[in-house]
Inverse folding.
């Protein structure tokens, strides 16, 4: 469904990503793991169109989307849930959801979609008229995911969904990710918590210094020495 | 309206080429520097005056130049209506060899240019700056050409008293000598002749809102029967629009700076407003003939009497050079200062015995139905005119 | 007297609020203080004049003039600012100064340096009274128009998707784009709204001043800038609050300062601005911005 080929990203003189190749098949969860600064978020940003690509290609559904604007890529069915959630703090939960489904579908459909989201995240129904900024971190993460789902994406890019959340909330979020996958959504997950990521993912790609150092099924990686030593603390 | 600026530039080019053609024949050339506003707030005053001056210089050049022998080369630089910029361009004009300097229609930039010309003894004439303090602030090279503020104010006051007005409100702005002092001169004459000043207000030039001042006028215990101001564009239209908009019908009088097409075009709004001019074109008068000639020269009728005033500057310079018999700045200066009963277009102009602000007639005008109507022309009694 | 001055203050404050809002809307989206905002007003003023000269009925002329302001704002974005997208704040600021100067010169040389009289219809120079209390038609129109414009803008920003997106974009533009909402649409709408506000403000301004001149936009844009900064740059409620505050202070000082101190009026107002910013550096009602790591 998505393939990234020989991706290179530069910020000025700094090469944040030297070479990343990866593919995501329909219905899969792929985890992109690695240390801070390995180039995970930059890769996601490049796929979503937020980060300019120096060279290489991003293909979605057989179409080259390299260099398209974020809005064009979103309209093709790729939704990014950015790191730090970045919900609109001064807007109500309702308005946050509304923007998520604003341009992809007719109003009536967006209503239905919103109702689905409120079923999926009952907490959001409770705080429907509350400003996003007043929600707790976990609630904001729910909102951010729900907002991304409003546009009925076929693929969702999750950037560090566990960051800054309390342990029990992390479980809730990961349960939810598993459920989304069951519903047929394709997911590219960036996560620092490697153990968690490998638990939920089908396959994983390990990045270090802007390059792919290892890839394979989640099981293979979980048992590889390199991953165990470097990321799982074993 | 076609672009004034482009028209002027075309005329300037023509003038320069004309001069070039003649100057090969006559060896003597005199450079006149004009530091005047082509842009900004003073441009609406400087440009018409400059057009009049240029017309007279063109005519004089066709007859051999000033005094019949000094072909004029007129150098014009834009002051952008800025006092500091005026000094800068005046210096450039001096460096280019100007022997006579023309300065903008306002005291402050004229004084800043005069500071430079005074030590060099270069005769300096303001286009239509009318503050009587102007010449004293610079020194003996500085000449006014337009009827001075205190003279104009006296004429308006004489008229207001003759109409039976008793109580005046004075609206001034400290931002320029003209707007600050002219209404006060009026107040002095008005009080001396039995009237009373019942209130004073101030505004800043460019101020958007006069409502507070107008509410103060409405709240005066002693109701004025006249408001006197020297506000001009764009403050005068704003003031009178808001004054009438607040339901105040007290008449408003001003002076020469509101004798412009812009104010006239305000139509009914300015009905009854009295202002001054340097002259009035009665049928058969020299001024009427000038207006016709100017229309032919410039392609449009004069907007006000600034054009004729500018034209008269050319005549004054011609006479002075003739009297001096040379283009020596000192001699030319002395000749201007000695002019007595010189026949201009609008009437007799006298510098002799004055502080280099000319004695000359003042025409009183009144707007009625979108037209400026002549009320009377007078030379105020010198004894009534308040000291600067 | 006091009631009258309050009306004066509200009337002036309303115009300042419209102007400050125009600046704030664009700033909140693209981080640009558009100093050419004043020239949009000037342009609307000339458009009004031209429409009246062409013999359009007054309401039509006003409509044409306001639309001209709005279209000019959109065109300005297309021609001058879009190529600069992504440039630094300083470059954007300089571009806006350049556009402003350019337009002033175009007005001066293409039309006239002289102010042009705009004859307002007679009914605008009247007043109606309640007992011994008179209100001018001019200030009343100012108050009503600014109030309606503020309400309409509020409704637009709250109810419509584009309005909601604009509020969101003020916080975090990138994420709005991630929702599939085109950046150009948001930016164009911001300029359109700021142009509409400039056009409306120009109508009120010209109605009170009865003339248009090439430099007409300078004072209002300066006042709007002050109001927007005092209110909190980029904050729309702040811009409105700042506008009204500035109007109240100016009228208050004009009404009460003795003649000898009157020339220092602007200095006093600006000192007040500094005082406000010392106490509240982010302005009265600071803008919400996304905290990014």
């Amino acid at each position: 469904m998505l393939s990234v080929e020989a991706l290179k990203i530069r910020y000025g003189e700094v090469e944040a990503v030297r070479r990343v190749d990866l593919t995501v098949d329909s219905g899969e969860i792929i985890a992109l793991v690695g240390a801070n600064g390995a180039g995970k978020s930059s890769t996601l940003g490049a796929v979503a169109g937020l980060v300019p690509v120096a060279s290489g290609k991003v293909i979605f559904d057989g179409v080259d989307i390299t260099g398209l604007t974020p809005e064009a890529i979103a309209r093709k069915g790729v939704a990014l849930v950015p790191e730090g959630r970045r919900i609109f703090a001064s807007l109500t939960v309702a308005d946050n959801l509304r923007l998520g489904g604003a341009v992809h579908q007719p109003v009536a459909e967006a209503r239905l979609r919103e109702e689905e989201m409120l079923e999926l995240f009952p907490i959001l129904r409770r705080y429907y008229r509350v400003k996003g900024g007043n929600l707790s971190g976990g609630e904001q993460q729910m909102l951010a995911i729900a907002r991304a789902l409003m546009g009925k994406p076929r693929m969702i890019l999750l950037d560090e969904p566990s960051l800054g959340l309390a342990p029990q909330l992390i479980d809730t979020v990961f349960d939810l990710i598993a459920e989304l996958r069951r519903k047929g959504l394709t997911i590219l997950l960036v996560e620092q918590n490697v153990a968690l990521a490998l638990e939920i993912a089908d396959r994983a790609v390990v990045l270090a210094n802007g390059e792919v150092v290892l890839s394979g099924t989640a099981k293979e990686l979980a048992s590889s020495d390199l991953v165990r030593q470097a990321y799982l603390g074993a | 309206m076609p672009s004034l600026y482009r028209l002027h530039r075309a005329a300037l080019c023509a003038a320069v080429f004309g001069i070039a053609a003649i100057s090969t024949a006559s060896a003597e050339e005199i450079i006149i520097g004009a530091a005047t506003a082509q842009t900004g707030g003073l441009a609406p005053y400087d440009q018409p005056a400059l057009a009049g001056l240029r017309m007279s210089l063109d005519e004089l050049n066709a007859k051999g130049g000033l005094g019949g022998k000094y072909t004029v080369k007129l150098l014009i630089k834009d002051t952008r209506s800025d006092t500091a910029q005026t000094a800068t361009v005046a210096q450039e004009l001096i460096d280019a060899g100007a022997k006579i300097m023309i300065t903008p229609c306002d005291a402050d930039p004229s004084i800043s240019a005069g500071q430079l010309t005074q030590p060099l003894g270069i005769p300096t004439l303001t286009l239509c700056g009318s503050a009587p303090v102007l010449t004293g602030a610079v020194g003996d090279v500085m000449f006014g050409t337009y009827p001075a503020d205190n003279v104009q104010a006296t004429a308006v006051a004489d008229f207001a008293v003759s109409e039976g007005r008793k109580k005046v409100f004075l609206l001034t702005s400290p931002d320029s000598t003209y707007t600050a002092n002219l209404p006060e001169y009026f107040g002095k004459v008005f009080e001396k002749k039995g009237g009373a000043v019942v209130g004073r207000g101030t505004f800043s030039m460019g101020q958007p809102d006069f409502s507070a001042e107008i509410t103060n006028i409405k709240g005066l215990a002693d109701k004025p029967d006249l408001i006197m101001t020297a506000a001009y564009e764009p403050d005068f239209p704003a003031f009178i629009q808001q004054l009438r908009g607040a339901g105040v019908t007290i008449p408003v009088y001003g002076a020469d700076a509101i004798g412009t097409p812009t104010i006239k075009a305000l139509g009914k709004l300015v009905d009854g407003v009295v202002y001054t001019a340097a002259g009035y074109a009665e049928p058969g008068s020299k001024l009427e003939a000038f207006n016709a000639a100017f229309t032919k020269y410039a392609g449009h009728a004069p907007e006000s009497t600034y054009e004729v005033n500018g034209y008269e500057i050319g005549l004054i310079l011609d006479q002075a050079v003739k009297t001096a018999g040379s283009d020596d700045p000192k001699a030319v200066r002395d000749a201007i200062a000695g002019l007595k009963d010189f026949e201009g277009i609008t009437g007799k102009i006298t510098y002799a015995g004055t502080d280099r602000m000319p004695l000359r007639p003042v025409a009183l005008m009144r707007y009625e139905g979108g037209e400026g109507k002549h009320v009377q022309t007078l030379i105020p009694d010198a004894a009534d005119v308040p000291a600067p | 007297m006091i009631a009258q001055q309050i009306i004066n203050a509200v009337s002036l404050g309303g115009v300042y609020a419209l102007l400050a809002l125009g600046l704030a809307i664009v700033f909140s989206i693209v981080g640009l203080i558009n100093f050419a905002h004043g020239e949009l007003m000037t342009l609307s003023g000339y458009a009004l004049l031209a429409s009246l000269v062409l013999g359009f009925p007054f309401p039509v002329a006003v409509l044409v003039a306001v639309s001209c302001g709005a279209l000019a704002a959109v065109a300005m974005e297309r021609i001058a600012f879009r190529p600069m997208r992504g440039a630094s704040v300083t470059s954007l600021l300089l571009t806006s100064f350049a556009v402003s100067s350019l337009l002033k010169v175009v007005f001066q040389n293409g039309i006239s340096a002289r102010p042009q009289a705009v004859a307002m219809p007679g009914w605008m120079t009247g007043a109606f009274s309640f007992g011994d209390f008179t209100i001018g038609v001019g200030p009343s129109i100012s108050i009503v128009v600014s109030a309606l414009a503020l309400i309409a803008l509020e409704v637009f920003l709250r109810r419509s998707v584009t309005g909601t997106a604009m509020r969101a974009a003020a916080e975090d533009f990138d994420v709005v784009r991630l929702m599939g909402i085109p950046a150009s649409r948001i930016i164009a709408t911001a300029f359109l709204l700021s142009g509409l506000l400039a056009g409306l403000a120009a109508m009120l301004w010209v109605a009170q001043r009865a003339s248009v001149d090439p430099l007409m936009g300078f004072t209002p844009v300066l006042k709007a800038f002050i109001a927007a900064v005092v209110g909190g740059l980029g904050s729309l409620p702040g811009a409105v609050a700042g506008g009204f505050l500035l109007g109240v202070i100016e009228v208050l000082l004009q009404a009460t300062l003795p003649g000898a101190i009157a020339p220092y009026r602007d200095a006093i107002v600006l000192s007040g601005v500094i005082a406000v910013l010392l106490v509240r550096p982010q302005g009265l009602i600071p803008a919400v911005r996304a905290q990014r790591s």
About this structure: Residues 2-30 of chain C form the longest helix (29 residues). Residues 2-279 of chain C form a domain with the ABC transporter involved in vitamin B12 uptake, BtuC fold (CATH 1.10.3470). The longest strand of chain C covers residues 127-130.
